[in-house]
Design brief:
60s Ribosomal Protein L30, Chain: A
Length: about 140
């Protein structure tokens, strides 16, 4: 099983102790989860993947290395990978309440293990940041046989 999702905008970015399921990251998480659900339907994938997975993330944006300009900075690569890993599984049990944006989309709610059940299933990650005139990213997930 191999899945590819291309998204406009920036990927979810895990920041310190802040939840990606609330605040400004919630819309990014929701958009990614909706795109993954659509790709799962096209591929005939039902439920979360049980196998180990490999993940490739390519992030593009106008500012890939200057965090002093937060309006355009895409984020640190490790935070981007962590944000993606957290987005494709269900939220931690101690998460207080997700953004109201998820109420209209229960099929990708915080309580659903959308693609994997635990991020320990991720056994390989390749991630890059490249300069581009617009924010976008490509996520490829491949299950091991």
């Amino acid at each position: 099983m191999k899945m590819r999702v291309e998204m406009d905008g920036r990927p979810p970015n895990k920041r310190k102790a802040k939840s990606i399921w609330r605040g400004p990251m919630a819309k990014r998480v929701l958009n990614l989860r909706l795109a993954i659900l659509e790709e799962k339907k096209k591929s005939g994938i039902r439920g979360p993947i049980k196998q180990r997975i490999r993940m490739m993330l390519n992030v593009y944006g106008p500012n890939i290395d200057n965090p002093k300009l937060p309006q355009t900075y895409v984020g640190d690569i490790d935070s981007l990978v962590a944000g993606i890993c957290d987005s494709i599984r269900k939220a931690d049990h101690n998460m207080v309440r997700p953004s109201l944006a998820f109420e209209d989309h229960p099929e990708v709610g915080h309580d659903k293990p959308l693609l994997i059940t635990d991020d320990s299933q991720v056994v390989r990650v390749a991630a890059t940041k490249s300069e581009s005139g617009r924010d976008r990213y490509v996520l490829v997930i491949e299950a091991e046989d």
